[in-house]
From TrEMBL:
Designated name of the protein: VOC family protein
Gene3D superfamilies (alphabetical): 2,3-Dihydroxybiphenyl 1,2-Dioxygenase, domain 1
CDD domains xrefs: VOC_Bs_YwkD_like
InterPro entries cross-referenced by the UniProt entry: Fosfomycin_Res_Enzymes, Glyas_Bleomycin-R_OHBP_Dase, Glyas_Fos-R_dOase_dom, VOC_core, YwkD-like_dom
Pfam families referenced in this protein's UniProt entry, alphabetically: Glyoxalase
Membrane-crossing segments per the record: none
Ranges where the VOC domain occurs: 5-128
Keyword annotations from UniProtKB, A to Z: Metal-binding
Keyword Metal-binding: yes
PANTHER family found in the cross-reference section: FOSFOMYCIN RESISTANCE PROTEIN FOSX (PTHR36113:SF6), LYASE, PUTATIVE-RELATED-RELATED (PTHR36113)
Length: 128
C-alpha cells in the first residue's frame, strides 16, 4: 500500500450558510459542486484547496457539538500552508477573525498560528 496524497477533509458545520460564506468568501476556496440531499435534509459542498485536495463541508440537522479543546483525543486541527503569515493574519483581521500570537515551530523554525472557523474548529496557518 502507498498513500499518495490527502484527497479531502470532511467538516460538519452547524450553520451551512455561515460556514459556506466563511470557507468560500473569506478563505477563498473554490466551489467544485454543491449538492442538497433531500433524504438527509443535508448539504454537501465540495471545495477546492488545490489540484489534489478538497474540503467536503456537510450540514446535518441536530448535530452534537464538537469537543472544542484542540488537545482532546481525535483529529487535532486542519492546517493551511501560506506564503506570508503576517499578510494572512492582516487579511483575516479585515473579517474580524482573531488569531493567536505567531509561534515558531521548534523543529522546522517555521512560523504558525491558529484561528477558528464559525463552529470553533481549530484551523492553523503555517508559513512555507
Amino acid at each position: 500500500m502507498k498513500i499518495c496524497d490527502i484527497h479531502h477533509i470532511a467538516i460538519i458545520c452547524s450553520d451551512y450558510d455561515r460556514s459556506k460564506k466563511f470557507y468560500v468568501d473569506v478563505l477563498g476556496l473554490a466551489i467544485i459542486q454543491e449538492t442538497f440531499r433531500a433524504t438527509r435534509n443535508s448539504y454537501k459542498l465540495d471545495l477546492r484547496i488545490n489540484d489534489h485536495t478538497q474540503i467536503e463541508l456537510f450540514s446535518f440537522p441536530n448535530t452534537p457539538p464538537r469537543v472544542g479543546d484542540p488537545e482532546a483525543c481525535g483529529l487535532r486541527h486542519l492546517a493551511f500552508r501560506v506564503e506570508n503569515i503576517e499578510e494572512t493574519i492582516a487579511y483575516l483581521k479585515m473579517y474580524h477573525i482573531e488569531t493567536e500570537n505567531i509561534r515558531i515551530d521548534e523543529i522546522t523554525g517555521k512560523k504558525f498560528t491558529f484561528f477558528k472557523d464559525p463552529d470553533n474548529l481549530p484551523l492553523e496557518i503555517y508559513e512555507a
